[in-house]
Amino acid sequence: MSDLTRDRSVRTVGGQQLGRAIRTMRRERSLTLTQLSERSGLSAPFLSQVENNRANPSLASLALIAAALECATIDIIGAADAGRIVEITSAPPLFDDGDRSLNPRGGEVNVVESRRREGGETVPVRHRHDCVLYVARGDVDITVTPPSGPQVHRLDAGASVVCAAGVPYHWSAVSGEAIVLAIRVDDRVVARHE
């Protein structure tokens, strides 16, 4: 497993605070970098770079660090992000296709709201990470296209589906107006399938 990733990393959640949070938690447990390295399976130089904000851990690396510190990943992120308690976005602007990002400044978790009227459908996309589609209003047909062929799932308000990383999907409104929230870790689209 690689210690580094070219993708956006968790460090963006806590900015310069992630490394400091890991160092503080390591010291609270009276662990040296070498001990943390042995427990996590990550190299001591890499961990030093992370603590000094010169390297960005992938989510997998952060999970290994959390396990070595005997805490949850969210505990590290929470400690790193303690300075930002709430972030409010009022009526973010619409994209050309009518969708809108509910956290327009980006971040590790991205939520996109899509609205479609009966018969309207989204363009097929696939993402680098799993994506949760939550139906906030209406009835929708969600088409997921794994290598075995397309699968159509009819969902009503309150239902959700997880689309695996790399698997194309799109959805259409069955009746009236439908709203779907796409919740994913990485805000970049791997590819649009026109």
From TrEMBL:
The keyword DNA-binding applies. Gene3D superfamilies: Jelly Rolls, lambda repressor-like DNA-binding domains. Residues 22-77 form the HTH cro/C1-type domain. Signal peptide: none annotated. It comes from the Bacteria. Pfam families: HTH_3. Keywords: DNA-binding. GO terms for molecular function: DNA binding; DNA-binding transcription factor activity. This is Helix-turn-helix transcriptional regulator. It comes from Antrihabitans stalagmiti.
